[in-house]
Amino acid sequence: MNIALLSHEWLVLLLGLGLLLADLWLPPAARRKLGYVAALGVAAILLYSILFVRLPAGGVEYAFGRMYILDSLALFFKRFFLLAALAVLLMSVEFAAEIQSGLTEYYALTLFALAGMLFACSANDFTLLFVSLELITISFYILTSFQRARTLSLEAGVKYLIIGALSTSFTVFGIALVYGTSGKLNFQDLAAVAPQLIGNKLFLFGLLWVMVGLGFKIAAFPFQIWAPDVYQGAPSPTTAFLAIGSKAAGFALVLRVLFTAVPAITAQWSHLLIVISAVTILYGNLCALPQRNVKRLLGYSSIAHAGYMLLGVAALSAAGQSAILYYLSGYLFTVLAAFTVICLVMRHAEGEDISRLAGLNQRSPLLAAAMALAMVSLAGVPPMAGFFGKFLLFKAALAQGATQHGYYWLVGIAILGVVISLYYYFGVIRAIYWPGNAPDPSPIPVSRPILLSIYACVAGMFFLGLYPNPVVTLTSKAASALQAETAAIHATATLPKAPRAAWTRSLLGPASAAPSRP
Amino acid sequence: MNPDFLAWIILFLPLVAAGLITLYFLPQRKVSAGLSTGAVIIGFVLSVIFVSWAGWQPAIRESAATWLAVGPLHVAFGLRFDPLSLLMILVVTGVASAIHVYSWGYMHEDPGFSRFFACLSLFTFSMLGIVLANNFIELFIFWELVGVSSYLLISFWHERPSAADAGKKAFLANRLGDFGFLLGILIVWSSLGSLNFGVLQDRLSAHAGALGSLATIAGLLIFCGAMGKSAQFPLHVWLPDAMEGPTPVSALIHAATMVAAGVYMLCRVSFLLDASALEVIGWVGGFTALLSAVIAVQQDDIKRILAYSTLSQLGYMMMAVGLGGDSQAMFHLSTHAFFKALLFLGSGSVILALHHEQNIWKMGGLRRQMPVTFWTFLAATFALSGVPPFSGFYSKDSIFAQATARHSYGLLVLGLAVAVLTAFYMFRLVFVVFLGSSRSPACDHAQESPPVVLWPLRLLAVFSIIGGYIGIEQVYEKQFGAAGAGHPLWQQLLAPFREAPIGAVLGILAAVLGFAGAYKLYSNVAKDPLPDKLGALSRAMANRFYFDELYQATVIRLHDALASIADWIDRWIIDGFCVGLARGGTDLTGRALRLLQTGNLQTYAFLFALGAALVLYLVLGK
User: Fold this and answer.
1) What is the DSSP annotation of A391-434?
2) Which residue of A2, A333, B117, B279 pairs with A457 in a disulfide if CB–CB is 3.0 to 4.6 A?
3) pLDDT level of residue B1 (50, 70, 90 thresholds)
4) How buried is B300 (Cβ within 10 angstroms: 0-12 exposed, 13-18 middle, 19+ buried)?
5) Alpha-carbon span A418 to A301, nearest angstrom
6) Chain B contacts of A281, Cβ < 8 Å?
């Protein structure tokens, strides 16, 4: 086993533990600055990843008896999460005044959630899938209710905890059923036997239960119910991390399970995926219409965006998977820009009503422009990133239209959703620029690191919208890893398995010994 | 190392300057002007380096970056290098450099100084984009960008209603032409399957009839775009009004570059135009040339005279394109860029000295107070009138020679008539403005402009004089075949007389005739004698043959009627019924769905489980 393979995860965990240790000796006043240390550390890891981490010639490496995989898809997501965490940590420093106690824990938990995401995108086994999901979710339970004096935050935490626990129970049950019917936990092993299990209802039942748990993570219909309340109640940086990191981790796992573990079965599910995608888009957009609270509005909008990305899953093609990754990249910059602005404008305010944005144009033209651009990008108007992402997703779905007409309907509904969404996104822009009574006309101070972060987000939105080719190349390479593995599995299905490490055998002993059931 | 990276720098430098000025340097006037001017001068220097490094026909004809590649869809963003584009970037950056420097002096007092330079840089970027584009889509994008930046610059003094209206008019007239242009592009795309100029040319040369029966229509639709940008009849009405913009803008956009874009584009895609389309283009050009030359004779505003003269010269270029003389058209375009920019800058110098007086009948005798302006203006006038050895003579003569060679005597006669009129109205202008005696007290106190204004004049004057025999035409001939061997300078000086003596002699005669007429009528007069002699015709000429009124009465009235009908439909049927119903429905659904979100945890958990059951049913229930 190769420890160096897991360098991202080790480094992030060490950073988190280091922060907790440092907290013991630092005076309370200095703790706020620890956020910068955490951000710097994450930036260094990101830099290290980009400069030094290279895939081997074959493009794939395994660890822990093939539980853990490092391929171009995993690497893409790792860098994605590191970037997201970097911006979220900078945001947290700005938000520090709102957190009464345990600030360092707040930073450290964010890092632990990040470690969970880093593991999740490398999961090649239902065990690691479950453990990493729990690492993410449990960190978020605490992060969500971190503003202990705020009832809304506590309420959100409790709701997230209970619905989350419910969804976890579905996942565990599902994994147990999958294991019980197939005898496999490893994705590639499963892929080899899955074609024989297409008719096995118990197996399908288990898979669907796993998908329920993942549907909860990405907030797809009908498992979206928690999202608005939690988005509204959580501290703003946590909401941002939830919207981008947690959702992306969910999508990474959805892609792995559907397209690496059980591609043969996924191919039968196009109908289900089309319906879920369409309903998710409509539900998110329609519910966002009457909202007045910006964070709640973005909560509903995040449901709609999950729907758009499911459109790429439903397309069942490499183009669709690549489009999801592209869309996520654009969504990263857009959501981070929007939440950074919300975090800065509304940190001292009770309730994030849209009217609080009034007069922002006078208070800080930069923040006003960044928020407006983010809304334009979310709405999918060229030349911003959101437009191009949607273009790629729709294109991928339309390419499948010849096989099933449902795809045409799906794209039609998605376009309808975009039209509906224009209304509420531009409502936000109107609130910013239309002359209204600013509740607090004082200019908003913007610190230098956060300024950099905003500039980077705006630049990212423009870059992805104006010059898509470099990132398209990157995402299609990452998505092709998914296909390549599937192909490799089919080719090597008959080869004997690699011997497992001793400790894995003791952990999964009976399973690896048990013959697969018919 | 490939020299093509230089071209990318040349193209994007002005954009960077425009972006930096808009974002950061609006309050710092000097920095803004420095950035903008620096970008274009560096662009010019790099263009010279590029040409001397790679030659007129670089080994690498195209430099493309993939803008997007998804599956079979492949969109490239590329630059094309050939004699046509290389000489044009030299002309564009060269003339633009002179005009940027001039603007320091001319716009000095203006509060919108920085904004002006930002717009100027944006324009330079767009124009370079048109010149370097290697496919139709890219060309079209920059084409529209030129339209936008010209709109911004014409209505630069937007607080004046006339300037705002002129900007709008220019934009709309251009859009009208562009609609046809876009249709033409789509026809080409659908029938030839590519938009890259090189690929198109290869396909057409391999299979001449590839466009089939659509050839003429496609050619004419593409010509529509050129008609808008190059202000050809009947879309010519916007150009004179565009003189509401600051004078450097008139010089850069409405003389040297933007209006030339139409001619340039036609030369770029001349392989697409078939004989009947060329016939139409030639006659439209000839008619525009004559019409606007006649109008120019009776204008009193110094910039409007030059504007109509520009129209008329553009007509010449179109005529040359129609006669199949692409290199002649481009030759005239290049020399015209120098002397017309010079004329506009000279008129700007006069206008500045007279505190924004533009009526020529309130000027006079300025030769003494403004010697540099006078002599450079005179040089440009000689060039425009086609007097040897000034540059205009050579380029104009090459067009006459082309008409003779094609036995197109109708157009030749038209061209000669326009040449007479050109000399006539230009010398009228010189006699009235610079010679004679002063007609207003302002003229007596006029002072020569500062050096920052005069140096660009001197520089452009040099090129206006020698532009005809420094090998410009030979470079274009490399592009369009039939490249003659290079001649020594003295041979080029006399080339017109040797190669096309009839055209040359007739051209000189026309210029002399026009000069004699102007001398007889306008040397030392207090007011215009022509209105008394010509009566109603003169009034029609002064009123531009009532084209604006005609459009007002027909096109615009029809348009207003259609608009009010559309407004009614939009207001009552679409907005009231369709949108109202859809909005009401959507709103209601949104509110109904909100009821699901009770905030009650038990309900949430129940709904969650219900959802799981639903998914199970969808997959396993059937």
Assistant:
1) HHHHHHHHHTTTT-THHHHHHHHHHHHHHHHHHHHHHHHHHHHS
2) A333
3) low
4) middle
5) 11
6) none
A interface test, pick of B23, B144, B619, B622 with most A CB neighbours within 10 Å: B619
Distance CA B545, CA A289 (A): 57
- Buried residues in A206-229 as b, exposed as e (16+ CB within 10 A): bbbbbbbbbbbbbbbbbbbbbbbb
Apex A488 CA angle, A485 and A490, nearest 5: 115
Of B70, B114, B120, B129, nearest to B95 by C-alpha is B120
Residue B72 sits at the chain A interface (C-beta within 8 Å): no
The string of DSSP codes covering A296-339 is HHHHHHHHHHHHHHHHHHHTTSHHHHHHHHHHHHHHHHHHHHHH
- Provide Rg for chain A, Cα atoms: 22
Identify the DSSP state of A257.
I
Residues of A in contact with B618 (CB under 8 A): 271-272, 275
pTM of the shown model: 0.78
Inter-chain contact A290–B594, Cβ cutoff 8 Å? yes
In B238-385, which residue ranges form alpha helices assigned H by DSSP?
238-241, 247-251, 258-268, 275-297, 302-322, 326-353, 366-369, 371-385
Q: What is the pLDDT of residues A330-389, one digit of tens each?
A: 999 999 999 999 988 887 666 678 888 888 888 888 899 999 999 999 998 888 899 999
CA distances from A199 to A167, A314, A361, A395, B403 (A): 25, 21, 60, 32, 82
Q: Residue A353 forms beta bridges with which residues? A: A293
CA distance A298 to A286: 13
- As a three-state string, the secondary structure of B592-616 is HHHHHCCCCHHHHHHHHHHHHHHHH
Q: At what angle do helices B489-499 and B391-405 cross, to 10 degrees?
A: 40
- B370's tokens: 């403004």
CA dihedral sign, ordered A499, A502, A505, A507: negative
Residues B556/B558/B563/B566 CA torsion (nearest 10 deg): -160
The sign of the torsion formed by the CA atoms of B535, B536, B537, B541 equals positive
The residue-averaged pLDDT of B52-62 equals 77
Q: How far is B585 from chain A (nearest CA, A)?
A: 10
For A294, list phi and psi in degrees, rounded to 5. Answer: -65, -40
- The two tokens of residue B123 are 């324009």
SS3 content of chain A, % helix, strand, coil (to 5): 80, 0, 20
Amino acid in position A252: A
Give how far Cα B281 sits from Cα of A277, A307, B226, B288, Å: 54, 53, 10, 11
